[in-house]
Each structure stands twice: as C-alpha cells, then as structure tokens.
Write a structure and sequence with these properties.
Strand order of the largest sheet: 1-2-3
Distance between the termini: 40 Å
Number of domains: 1
Structural class: mainly alpha
Strand content: under 5%
Radius of gyration: 24 Å
Largest sheet: 3 strands, antiparallel
Shape: globular
C-alpha cells in the first residue's frame, strides 16, 4: 500500500508541475504573439491587436475543449478513436475541394468557416496517433480483412497531406504512427523489418518534388541563394545573432519589421531569440524539456497500461513538434511548415494541442480516482482485519 500511495503522490505532483509549466509556456506564447505581430497587424488589418485577440479567442475555445475532454474518460477517446479519426479525415479531405479549400502560398491546407481559417491537419496529428495505437495494439486479434480496412483509414490522411502539400505535418504524423506502433503490442519483428521500407518511402517522397530538394539543398547552404530560397532561414539566424545573451528587449525585434516571413507563426522562436536573447531561448527550451519530463513521469507512475501509453504518446508528440520547430528555426533541419506548440500564432494548432493536454489530464484524473478508491478499499479491509469487530463476531460466554 505504501508503494501505491507513493506512486499516487508522484503522479499528482507531476501533474501539477506539468500544468504550471504549460501555463508558463502559454503565457510566453501570448506575449510573443502580440510582440511579433502588432506591427504587421497594424499595417495590414489596421488593428495592432488583431492576431493577439484572435489567439486569445482560440485559447478560450481550446481551454473549453480541454476541460470537456478532461471530464470524459480517456478510454472513450480510445474506444471511438477510428470513428473520430474518420470524421477528422473527411474534414481534411475538404481542403482539396475547389471553392471549399483555401490555397495559401501554393498549399491547400485550410478551409474557411465563419470568418476563420481552419487547418484540419492539426487535429489529424492526434486522431491518427490514437487510431494508430489502437490498430497496432489489436493487430494480432484482427482478421486480415479488418487489418486492411483500418490500414486504409490510416494511409488516407497521409495521401491527402502529400497532395495539399504539407510535408511537415506528414512527417509528424509518420513519426507519431511509428512511436504508437513501437509502444503497442505490435510484433517487434515486423516493426523492425518495416522501418527500412518506411524510410525508403519517406526519402522517395522527399526527393520526388523539386521544391523539396531545393529546401534540402538550401538547408545545407542557405547563403548560396540569400535573396531566394535561403532568405527566410538567414533572416531567422540574424534574429538570433542580434539577440545576443540578453536580447534587444521585448518588442524591439528588427526582423519582425517585414524582414522575416512568418514572424508570428512558424518562425516566432527567432523573434523571441532576438528580443529575449539566449537567456529567453534557454528558458523556453527548458520549459518544454520540463513539460516532457513531467509528462513522462506521469506516464511512468500510472497503473493502467493504456493510460500510461496515451500519456506517453501525447507527451512525445508535443515535445517532438516543439524541438523540431526549434531545430528548423535554428537552421539545423530543412525548412518546413511546423509551428511551435502553444507559442506560435495559430488557432487550429492551439486548440488541437489543448485537446491533447485535456486527454493527458483525463488519464491522470481517472488514475488518481482509481488509486484513491483502491487505497480506501485497502484501508477499510485493513481496519476490519485488525479492529475489535472480529471480537464482536465471536460468541461470548455468559
């Protein structure tokens, strides 16, 4: 019983710390969205708070969704993971339909709804993760026909993402699926044998389009074409260089003055580096590291297998997106459309990531409730075992 209570205490403590770290990251994100976008918003929308107010609205929507998910059983989302995933895929497919899908910079990733741009791929990242886990976990119990049918549901969104095109989200989905397969009951032999095949397919898709090859070559030497394909990453690096150790000061970035494309979105980390310096970059990187640490700590102290893996997978995907974005902005990886969770501007991303957080805390809530019930039951049994009740149950001499 002592081990169980100790595990319960660690789980509860880690959950509280995870929540506090998350609040800190979101607060930094809101400040940086305002700082990085107010000049751009004032110029193009005649309202310097345009993006900040919208992000605040999305934060409210995402928080409401997270609370709703938190109050439901995480097992519900796993049980109906394929149904939810299919619905998300149908919305994703709408992006390819003329008059519905909105093309921006050559990519059809958005649909407009009630004045807002929705990017369905953001939620598909998580629905495909949950559906993949259930598929691989139950793989050996399924009939061949069912295996093929469900596999098509998993492959379909990947095809849509390639057609949009959105290779960044495609990569994240593939990474998430591989991790879900790894932690599931899927036969290890098949998993390891399939890795080279998946790698070859990924590399083939990468070099199949000239613009992807161009991005790869630009990543290796952005100064070869400083005014063309290398412009964005070079401006990003200038931002970090200008920031130095302590930064130019909040609101004083030069790169956001129409030099750095996507300054309030995918490359907001560069603006943060320029304004808050290496110190600010280190703090944000450490906060994400702490978020991952506490997430993994929660997973390791859960007794339910599925609660453990759902927390592990969602924490892994949140952390992967964060550090991949940082690597891209720092010029360590080829440039691709991938934002910084909870910090970059983007309603679809913020709502989807808060959905993941709600699901993590749903798993925590039910673990704590179950362990409390078991603890109370054990204490009651212990009480009756050692109490004087046993004496009253024995016949007394007159």
């Amino acid at each position: 019983m002592d081990d169980s209570l100790n595990s319960l205490d660690i789980l509860e403590s880690s959950a509280k710390k995870f929540f506090l770290v998350l609040i800190a990251i979101i607060a930094i994100g809101m400040i940086m969205v305002l700082s990085s976008s107010y000049i751009y918003a004032g110029e193009y929308y005649n309202d310097s708070f345009h993006f900040f107010v919208r992000q605040l609205l999305f934060l409210g929507m995402g928080s409401s969704l997270a609370y709703f998910v938190f109050r439901t059983k995480y097992s519900f989302w796993l049980k109906f993971s394929f149904v939810i995933h299919i619905l998300a895929c149908l919305v994703l497919a709408l992006t390819l339909i003329p008059e519905i899908g909105v093309e921006v910079k050559g990519a059809k990733r958005w649909i407009h709804f009630m004045g807002f741009g929705i990017q369905p791929s953001e939620i598909v990242k998580y629905t495909i993760l949950l559906a993949s886990f259930m598929y691989f976990d139950e793989f050996q119990n399924m009939l061949p026909k069912e295996r093929i049918k469900k596999a098509l549901y998993l492959v379909f969104p990947l095809i849509v993402l390639i057609l949009q095109p959105d290779f960044g989200t495609f990569s994240i989905c593939l990474i998430g699926m591989a991790f879900a397969c790894f932690v599931s009951r899927f036969p290890r032999k098949i998993f390891y044998l399939s890795l080279p095949v998946i790698t070859v397919i990924g590399l083939t898709l990468l070099i199949s389009q000239p613009y992807r090859v161009k991005r790869l070559l630009t990543f290796l030497d952005p100064w070869e074409n400083p005014l063309g394909s290398g412009f964005q990453i070079i401006q990003s690096l200038y931002g970090f260089a200008n920031g130095g150790l302590f930064g130019q000061g909040l609101g004083n970035s030069n790169e956001k003055l129409f030099y750095l494309p996507e300054a309030h979105n995918d490359f907001i980390f560069s603006v943060l580096g320029e304004e808050l310096g290496f110190l600010g970059v280190a703090i944000v990187a450490t906060l994400f590291l702490a978020l991952v640490y506490f997430g993994l700590n929660m997973a390791m102290h859960m007794r339910s297998r599925k609660a453990t893996y759902i927390t592990l997978m969602l924490t892994f995907l949140l952390g992967s997106q964060a550090y991949l974005n940082m690597a891209v902005v720092l010029g360590l990886l080829p440039t691709k459309g991938m934002n910084l969770p909870f910090i970059s501007y983007g309603g679809s991303s913020l709502v989807a990531n808060l959905f993941a957080v709600g699901l993590i805390f749903s798993a925590v809530r039910h673990e704590l409730a179950n362990e409390n019930q078991e603890s109370e039951s054990m204490q009651t049994n212990e009480y009756f075992r050692h109490s004087s009740f046993q004496d009253y149950s024995r016949p007394h001499r007159a």
